[in-house]
Design brief:
The chain is mainly alpha-helical. The chain is built from 9 helices and 3 strands; from the N terminus they run H-H-E-H-H-H-H-H-E-E-H-H. It has helices spanning 9-14, 17-35, 44-52, 54-59, 68-74, 76-80, 82-102, 131-146, 152-159; strands at 39-40, 106-108, 113-116. It has a 3-stranded antiparallel sheet. Helix 2 crosses helix 7, helix 2 runs parallel beside helix 8 (131-146) and helix 3 crosses helix 7 (82-102).
Length: 163
């Protein structure tokens, strides 16, 4: 991972631990709402590379009726780079998890599931139509989408990465 002082402004903004924590929190909130259980913590390593890469984020389905296997087969270009993106984001995702735990955005339960909360109200809303808003919103979608997969390891296999 590149040292903070050597990062471009865009890289520093998009790999900011607070943003990575918000991405994970958004996914965990929607996972819990849709699935009735806490999101496995290691899903954070799938959510970030799916939503931070603009091409992949824009190619995600609009609703959860499209299953992950179908989506991967229809989007070979996005899938081809996924493993490398996931690996390159590993440290940033871990920093985001630590930030989220430290600032009480994320909590880990006894079974290794993440629960989350995001501050709302004045000063805590994302500007609509901003890249950050789109990223965090799509992270929520991915959290909901992942509830459709019964075994978490299946998502890693479909995406071609190891947990």
């Amino acid at each position: 991972m590149t040292a903070w002082e050597q990062r471009s402004r865009t890289e520093a903004a998009m790999l900011n631990p607070a943003l990575l924590a918000a991405i994970t929190a958004s996914a965990a909130i929607r996972f819990l709402e849709a699935g009735g259980r806490a999101m496995p913590w290691y899903y954070a390593h799938l959510v970030a590379p799916l939503v931070l890469h603009r091409g992949t984020r824009e190619a995600l389905p609009r609703d959860t009726r499209t299953n992950l296997t179908t989506w991967v087969s229809r989007h070979p270009v996005e899938h081809a780079g996924f493993g490398q993106r996931a690996q390159s984001l590993r440290g940033a995702v871990q920093d985001g998890l630590r930030f989220g735990f430290r600032h009480h955005m994320l909590e880990l339960n006894q079974e290794g599931g993440l629960t989350a909360s995001l501050a709302q109200g004045r000063g805590h809303t994302l500007e609509p139509n901003s890249d950050v808003h789109r990223v965090v919103t799509r992270a929520g979608f991915v959290g909901k989408w992942l509830t459709k997969i019964e075994q978490p390891a299946t998502a890693f296999v479909i995406l071609g990465v190891a947990p």
